[in-house]
Write a structure and sequence with these properties.
By secondary structure, the protein is mainly alpha-helical. It has helices at residues 2-9, 13-26, 34-44, 56-66, 68-73, 77-80, 83-107, 111-120, 127-138, 144-160, 162-170, 173-187, 189-206. The chain is globular and about 40 Å long.
Length: 208
Amino acid sequence: MDTISALLTKERIDAQLLGVQSLRNITNPAMTKRSVSFEAAKLVLGGCNDQSPHCNISTIFVSLLLNFNRAEEGRDDELNDDTVFQNHLEKLHNHTLAILGNTLCVLTMERQCLFEITQCQKWLSSEALVSLLVTDLKNADTEHHNAFLAANALYYLIRSSSEAYDRAVDLGAPHAARLAQAVGREKHMALARESQRVLGALMAESGV
């Protein structure tokens, strides 16, 4: 985690990209021991002890995840033409979506732990995050894999936080999930399956 922390704190976007790639791998239980991915997941979502030397990882991760749109909007004309920079931004967004899904999935091993983190870390049910995920679902026609990752994260999020569920409904998640499911049936079956899980979770929580 020392190396990941060091990479994420650098200002260079290529270093940050290496850091989030490593974080994606370490939070994936298919690529590392479940006990390791579980501890990494707690760290990423802000469930660590404040005295931990790696607590900055959560702060940086949240910033990279939630500020993706701002980073795009804030670029000047010269950067708008920089395809390398654009590609790096897209990869960062893809990785942070995957990390969010990984961490939420891994922490379902101990639902009480996940519940406590979602109650404490209000950004997990914030409009900024839920809107980001719903928007990615709405953009499924052009960004299939991002939509798949967003659906995966949203599924676990609305099952673990009633506030996130309510916000997702208010922001049009049912409609967005249906759109993504339709796109997935034609172009990306994993997206279709994940969108169906989101719809199922939304209906189950509403009592339908």
